[in-house]
Structure formats: structure tokens, C-alpha cells
Amino acid sequence: MALTLGMITTDSADPVPLAAWWAKQFDAEVADPYGGEFLLVRGGTLPLALAFQKVDDPTPGKNRLHLDLGAPDVDAEVERLVAGGATIVGRRGEEGFSWVTLKDPAGNEFCIAAADEAAAEL
Length: 122
Description:
Layout: E1 7-12, H1 15-25, E2 29-31, E3 38-42, E4 49-54, E5 67-71, H2 74-83, E6 87-94, E7 97-103, E8 109-114, H3 115-121
Parallel strand pairs: 1-4, 5-8
Antiparallel strand pairs: 2-3, 3-4, 6-7, 7-8
């Protein structure tokens, strides 16, 4: 068996603005083939598609799955994301490896670490 990862999907009560927000962060494009019910974000710096699907009752509480993103300048990227509508949850880790946890405008958590630190940890 050989599985491949096709996309990462996020449930949302209002997926249209959320897909647009994430597309902006990755300089990507939004495709809306299902009239706001299921949107795809592709291109830009994304290695695969992000999908956003409309659900009447998103799962409450902390999301179980989140994106771990890398950036060459974490502080500058966090500043850019916060200016665009993200909120900081906390700065974590220690001197050898640290990251920042944020929430997108819908409250979904994601993390950013230095691109070289994240790769070194793998």
C-alpha cells in the first residue's frame, strides 16, 4: 500500500472568508466549485491543497490536527500574520527549538518555527 496526502481539510461554519485568509497567507488561489460549500486553496507556496468545507456545527474546543509551518524569520512572519487577522496563543519551546502558536480568524491553531529548526528536528 502507498498512501499519499492529497489535501488538508478544515471544517468551518463560514469557509469562504477563511479560505480567502489562508490563500492570502500563502500567496495562493481559491477555487470555489461548490458555491461556498467546499473551497480549495492551491498554488503559491503551498506544497499541497488546503480545503475548507462548510459544516453546520464545527467541532468545539482545540483542533486535533494543526499545521506546522516554517519561516526563515519567525518574528517577521508572526507580525505579518497578526496584522492580517491571526492571534498569538503563545511562544513555546526552548533555546534549541522554539515556535509560536497562533489562531487563524476562525480560531484554528497553527504553529510557526524557524524553517531550519523545524527541518533539523525531523
